[in-house]
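Okay, can you check this protein?
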Amino acid sequence: MVDYPARSHGNDGDSRVESVLELAKKLIAMPTVTNCAEERLHEVHACGRSIADFLGRAGLEVHLYDDGAYPSVLAAFPGGLTAPVTLGGHFDVVQPEPDDRQFEPKIEGDYLWGRGSADMKTVVASYMVWMAAVVGKGPPFPPVNLLLVGNEENGETQKWGTPHVLEAMNAETGWTPEFMVLGERTGEVGNEAYGSVCTSNRGILRMRIEGRGERGHSGTSAVPMDLVDRLIEARAAVAETFKRHLTLSSNDGWESNARVPFLNVGEPGVYNITAGEGVLGLEVRPIPEDDLPALVSNLKTVAAELGLEAVVEVADAGIACPPDNPYLAHLLAAVEYTSGVPAVIARKKPGTSARFAPGGNAVVWGQTGIGPHSKEERHYIPSIGPYLRVLDAFAERLIEPATIRLNGSRKPL
């Protein structure tokens, strides 16, 4: 691991940091909860409209997709909606822990606390402030657009998640992004000024194995094989299937993750009636080196052999950005130019929207956060300024790849 130069607390000499913090606090105060039984879709849609309004008033070209259960916003510099580089993120969050006090943002020392502060409303605010500042300076604009979605936490299976926006835009304009930068946190220790650039990202598989049994008196021998027995047998067969198809251990920690998060069958307290229905839940986070289609096919076979049905909710393989992607080279050069040391190349274990990038042409590169999805969630403020300045250098390279503006003059990188 490379240690980047330490930065001072606060705005780090960059006036935009205060704007990011103020905007981030407003976003955190909006309880945009998804991925639970009590989603707050009114707040999610209100947040989407607020983001679209902010970007539109700044002078950006904005498309608000809000005719589905979940909204999203695609914004670009004038005339640049089909730019080759897409910055991406999400503005939905998981349920607060322990209660709605997490929607009351607060700054303590170097940290901004609140639900969504680290995952990932501070980076969303950074993108918004950065785009607004760039468009305010006038052309030439970098070939970059911004996609923010409102249903990342529940897998983006419904519109308008990332894949739905990409599909709609491709059908309308023929556009496909050539490089995506997803701003999920990549400084995870808690005090890094610069997040690593993750060129590989695990995918996600969510599947249910469902079955129906014959309800009958448990004290007789006339009832066929108990559904509980079939689901328990399925659980054991699933574990063996995971072992055959997934890298579940490795020397460097880059491995797939597989869990059985729930098994629901029978009725608690009812002992004398066999179960009539049940479901086994599976979640896999596959690395790109593992064969996800083969795994899914074999899990379906396991279910069928036991008279059960496999229902796939999400099946997205992991991605690895092609190393020869020229935009990746520009981003790495921008990090090195800004920080003074080579960018840290890493791999992101939690699933992100990067898995939807065509051809795997995406990286996860964010700021620093601690405790996402927990009551300890907070964002490291000194990582905001460096991130904005890397975006500046990245944009300069996209406009004029061989040079960069420095103190009013242009000098070679």
